[in-house]
């Protein structure tokens, strides 16, 4: 199969690209920067200019949409919020237009989304059938992100939306930042630490995308999370255990996080007890359903 991955140069994208290549698929990237000599040839697109290199879509069987400006890269000013949205939403609308105009016969469109869709839901068990959260930029942006996928569905293409949890990898994402404080033998949880963190090992999130590509019975929303989410406080305690460290574990009060990060503090102060009901029902078998084993594995293998 020929697979085009937007944002394929990122954390999930590179891991997924190598997994797909090892399974014999041909992988290309769609990137803001053309690089045809890269490990995976990268064709250029420009979302603001509405440009996609026509060669990128030729003979493409499946599209994986991972592109998106970092949620925690910069404070959420109105212009940064727009950048976060456009990179996820306008990009899908652009791809839908280009698929239609080029007549490309794409079989499936697998899009990232995020567990931020559900908002801050306390102890409640959250499945794919649960409603979107009430308020907040993360909720609104995930809803718009997922709504945009309807443009692709309207073309008769099978579409999957992956509500991804915190991806565990030592290479990028949340974990390297948390590990930094452990270097100084200190760890922290945020607020009262009771908010649930739905996590997923980088291998399992990539394996879920592979399944979504290869299994044409999958469609609609799936929680890309491990079956055992833990509270923020337990997340930190289990990490200390996996590191075999006697670290000083202390809370960082919510108001401190609000002062430091503004509205963006939602990314660490909010949580939801998400379980991957539809993926499990679809027969997906997790390599990692235990957080300590997942931590130990990414640290040992440096993935
Ligand atoms: N990692 C997580 O824990 C996590 C959790 C939930 C959801 N997700 C979502 O899953 C997707 C992939 O995550 P990731 O961790 O692999 O992300 P990542 O490492 O930040 O990579 C995202 C890629 O998107 C492209 N990109 C960045 N800014 C862009 C912009 N302004 N416009 C268009 N493209 C842009 C970049 O590719 P080029 O430079 O090649 O253009 C980048 O490599 C993202 O949409 C993310 O929000 C991730």
Short description:
With 303 residues, this protein is α/β, with parallel strands linked by helices. The chain has one domain (2-301): Rossmann fold. It contains eleven helices and 16 strands.
What does this structure look like?
It is a single chain. This protein is an alpha/beta fold and 303 residues long. 40% of the residues lie in helices and 21% in strands. The chain has helices at 11-22, 54-57, 78-102, 137-153, 174-183, 202-214, 232-242, 254-261, 266-269, 277-281, 291-301; strands spanning 2-6, 26-31, 42-46, 51-52, 62-65, 108-114, 125-126, 158-164, 166-168, 186-190, 196-197, 199-201, 220-224, 230-231, 248-252, 273-274. The chain has an eight-stranded mixed beta sheet with strand order 4-3-2-1-5-6-8-13, sandwiched between helices. It is globular. The mean pLDDT is 98. It binds NADP nicotinamide-adenine-dinucleotide phosphate. NADP nicotinamide-adenine-dinucleotide phosphate is lined by residues 7, 9-13, 31-32, 47, 66-71, 83, 87, 112, 114, 164, 166-167, 172-174. NADP nicotinamide-adenine-dinucleotide phosphate (NAP) binds at residues 7, 9-13, 31-32, 47, 66-71, 83, 87, 112, 114, 164, 166-167, 172-174.
């Amino acid at each position: 199969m020929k697979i085009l991955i937007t944002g394929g140069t990122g954390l999930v994208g590179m891991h997924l690209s190598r997994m797909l290549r090892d399974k014999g698929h041909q992988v290309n990237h769609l990137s803001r920067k053309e690089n045809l000599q890269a490990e995976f040839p990268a064709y250029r697109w420009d979302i603001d200019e509405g440009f996609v290199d026509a060669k990128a879509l030729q003979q493409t069987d499946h599209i994986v949409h991972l592109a998106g400006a970092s949620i925690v890269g910069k404070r959420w000013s109105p212009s940064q919020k727009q950048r976060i949205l456009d990179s996820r939403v306008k990009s899908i609308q652009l791809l839908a237009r280009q698929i239609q105009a080029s007549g490309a016969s794409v079989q499936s469109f697998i899009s990232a989304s995020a567990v931020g869709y559900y908002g801050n839901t306390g102890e409640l068990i959250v499945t794919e059938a649960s409603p979107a959260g009430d308020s907040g930029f993360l909720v609104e942006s995930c809803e718009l992100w997922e709504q945009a996928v309807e443009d692709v569905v309207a073309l008769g293409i099978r579409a999957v939306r992956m509500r991804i949890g915190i991806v565990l990898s030592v290479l990028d994402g949340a974990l390297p930042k948390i590990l930094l404080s452990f270097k100084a033998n200190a760890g922290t949880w945020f607020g009262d630490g009771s908010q649930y963190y739905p996590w997923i090992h980088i291998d399992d999130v990539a394996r879920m995308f592979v399944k979504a590509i290869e299994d044409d019975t999958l469609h609609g929303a799936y929680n890309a999370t491990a079956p055992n989410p833990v509270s923020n406080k337990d997340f930190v305690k289990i990490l200390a255990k996996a590191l075999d460290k006697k670290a000083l574990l202390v809370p960082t009060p919510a108001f401190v996080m609000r002062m430091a990060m503004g509205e963006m503090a939602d990314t660490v102060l909010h949580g939801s007890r998400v379980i991957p009901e539809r993926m499990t029902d679809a027969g997906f078998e997790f390599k990692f359903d235990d957080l300590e084993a997942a931590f130990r594995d990414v640290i040992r293998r440096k993935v």
